[in-house]
Amino acid sequence: MNERIVVGMSGGVDSSVAALLLKEQGYDVVGVFMKNWEEQDESGTCTAESDWRDVQAVCDEIGIPYYSVNFAKEYYDRVFSYFLDEYKKGRTPNPDVLCNREIKFKAFLDFAMKLGAAKMATGHFVQTNEQGQLLKGADPNKDQSYFLYMLKKQQLQKALFPVGAMCKDEVRDYAKRKGLLTFAKKDSTGVCFIGERHFKTFLQQFLPATPGDMVAIDGQKLGRHDGLMYYTLGQRKGLGIGGCGDGRSWFVVEKDLERNQLVVAQGEDHELLYANGAMGVDVTWIGDTPEENTFDCSAKFRYRQKDQKVRVTLNGEGLLVNAYEPQRALTPGQSIVLYDGDQCLGGTILNNVLKK
RNA sequence: UGGGGUGUAGCCAAGCGGUAAGGCACGGGACUUUGACUCCCGCAUUCGCAGGUUCGAACCCUGCCACCCCAG
């Protein structure tokens, strides 16, 4: 009897190819589609429906059975409620890193095990090795290890990433050659399972607006904001102020919850947009906690950023991360992911920026 | 109701008789499994209004209107 592998299928080309590759390798493959968000988008269409149809069609083409599971409650309780709480605190969360830890590699993994699977698989562009370490995907432009940094070795050892060694173009070419209908499907973006949204409008459905003043660093009032949670640090678009000051663009440099003021500064290179150090909480290590309390490694302060040289220091409070080069718009709630070369070590949620 | 000045897109602003620069904002797209950033494209048949001069005016002339400043 061949080993059973349950593949998390999104309806996209990556997971389609992942399932196909496993099937060709002789596994007993089962495709499972997750629906974790009930609401339809602002255009009134439910992309989950067409995605589910694509999953069914692809599974039929490949010749594997498929199921659909609904983790909407788990998603809301373990990911979305946290997401909203963070915004209420004026922070900018990354729900997808939690989604991977709590849903895809927990709820879904458990479900796969119940189906008798030896392992689960997804279409993520990441790789693992025998030791259960997380490695970057082979395609430097599509590496998604940033989103999986919160996983533990024990979770990764039960996961396969069939497309992690491939480049995106190869994946599409392969899908096309094999006749998978998803070969040309556009990559999905936006919050996982929720999708592309007009973000402000989306948040307004959950978080009440508390408008206030938009002020310059010197306190000069420049306009009004619709509610601090609708903006993030380093943001330019949506401020609606133009033609004042020296004529350059304005960027959010601070969210003053006390005064309910959005503080903005002019010029994309403004010093307040940059900092070298940050303190992280909720530190997670994929493997064992490092022996050294202080060491150099590289880090990404946001998805797709090229590796930054940093020095990290562990203390009782959390993790101190100091970059050798100034970092733009370090934002509380976002994740700092640590690497040793191609190996993802883990990371932390940025709690506060250390001003010089 | 004496004198002076200014009125160009939502904002700032070039233009000075030859057929409306640029920036910001805004809109669309690209990029992207968070939020952002970034990049590309678009954005005044029209220059406060009405006449006049001219082959031709936002630019010259006249009148009116609005705002600002200085005097009373």
Tally of helical segments: 7
What percent strand? 25-35%
What order do the strands of the largest sheet run in, or round the barrel if closed? 12-15-14-13-16-17
The low-confidence runs, each spanning 5 or more residues with pLDDT under 50, are none
Description:
This protein is α/β, with parallel strands linked by helices and 356 residues long. It contains seven helices and 17 strands. The chain has helices at residues 13-24, 47-62, 72-88, 95-114, 153-156, 168-177, 199-204; strands at residues 4-9, 28-35, 66-70, 119-121, 126-128, 134-136, 159-160, 212-216, 221-225, 250-256, 261-266, 274-285, 294-300, 308-314, 319-328, 335-340, 343-354. The strands form three sheets. The chain has a six-stranded antiparallel barrel with strand order 12-15-14-13-16-17. A five-stranded parallel sheet has the order 3-2-1-4-7, with helices on both faces. Helix 1 links the parallel strand 1 (4-9) and strand 2. The longest helix is centred in the first third of the chain and has 20 residues, at 95-114. The protein is globular. 40% of the residues are buried. It binds one RNA strand of 72 nucleotides through residues 10, 12, 83, 87, 92-97, 99, 124, 144, 147, 187-193, 195, 199, 231-237, 239-252, 268, 302-304, 328-329, 331, 333-335.
